[in-house]
Amino acid sequence: MTLTLFPPASCPRLVVKIGSALLVDPDGGVRRAWLEGIAADIAARTKAGQQIAVVSSGAIALGARRLGLAKGGSASLEDAQAAAATGQIALSHVWAEVLGAHDLTAAQILVTLDDLEDRRRYLNAAATLDRLLGLGVVPILNENDSVATEEIRFGDNDRLAARVAQAAAAQGVVLLSDIDGLYDRNPALPGATHIPRIEKIDATIEAMADRGSASGMGSGGMVSKIEAARIANAAGANLAIASGRIDHPLTAPARHSLFVAEKAARARKAWLAGRLTARGSIMVDDGAVHALRQGKSLLAAGATGIDGQFARGDVVEIMDAKGAKIARGLSEYDATDAARIVGRRSDAHAALLGYAPRAALIHCDHMVLL
């Protein structure tokens, strides 16, 4: 048994995401034999010294079967929430059993988008993960779909896995899916070519993404996986998309696509880069865009407009003249005061605001380029 993908020596801490179509069969039952193989893989990696957290889908599919809900629980938000509440307890029980067979302890953590978008709650989650992993426990995480709504949810576990990797300070992420990686076009099309290694996520790579989920059961297609890779890479973690359509996918050598991490950003900047929401936005001119790319702070003189209602310290996005996202950072002003000084030089700010101004709209220490 070889651990060729993310070996423990170079990846002491690993996050594994398992999609619904792998864990649950089309009738809504657990694929028990396959899951037992995953548990054996985790046990082998744990014995080799690797700490592993699992992001596991499947609660809604399992709950929908038990409740007899139409459309797999997706007919309405209320059905999905009821299915999630019912299925999550069954999912946790199965994980506890299959891991317990290898003398491993499972722990359940349910999170919402806000838990990882709010800085203090994010740090609390990170501390819990660190303690559990340090104790040799295997945390099983999932989005808390019983309370999440369309407006405040990850929407797929690919991006959740990347955020968990960031919070856990993991060096690697494996997205086990119904596909073995990224292709230059939809893999169902003739001539589709597998891309084994991606050094940089750019417009060319993004154009290769297919929005479909082959099983019809999961919520994330290749677009969500590339977004997850971007989040993980910004935090210094490599990410692999690998097929789970084989036995023992975490120990058997198999084809995959590896997204190579850039140099890890500082903790706060990595958290900013991985966020999925912002309170508002600041539009800037071309001169400001150039300055930001040179590592400078955003000054009011380079801003052209404000959108949204945000307070000082809230996360906002910086947009160029074409509406493209350039950066994300913590605002030094609330939206009202920021609007008063947009486009104005620093020496005019005190008179406009009635108090001593701060040096910048967003300081470079609290900003990350996108």
Describe this structure as you would to a colleague.
This protein is elongated. The chain is built from 13 helices and 15 strands. The two termini are 40 Å apart. By secondary structure, the chain is an alpha/beta fold. A hairpin with a 5-residue loop joins strand 13 (315-319) and strand 14 (325-330). Mean pLDDT is 89; it is low at 212-219. The strands form three sheets. An eight-stranded mixed sheet has the order 3-4-2-1-5-9-10-8, sandwiched between helices. It has a five-stranded mixed sheet with strand order 12-11-13-14-15, sandwiched between helices. It has helices at residues 20-23, 32-47, 59-67, 77-100, 113-117, 119-134, 157-168, 203-207, 222-234, 267-274, 286-293, 335-341, 349-353; strands at 13-18, 51-56, 106-111, 138-143, 172-177, 182-183, 194-195, 197-198, 238-243, 256-259, 280-284, 303-308, 315-319, 325-330, 367-369. Helix 3 crosses helix 4, helix 6 (119-134) packs across helix 7 and helix 7 packs parallel to helix 9 (222-234).
